[in-house]
Fold:
Amino acid sequence: MKPVILITATVVLALLIFSSLVYAVDNSSYDFKFIVN
Structure:
């Protein structure tokens, strides 16, 4: 198997974790989102 598959899986997993973290922060603190935007 090519390592490209492993790299792609790692990137997808990292994006899922990152999006879930952003979603959690977005829900917990609205002030943080207001300051960032």
In short: The chain has a mean pLDDT of 80. The first helix runs from residue 3 to 28.
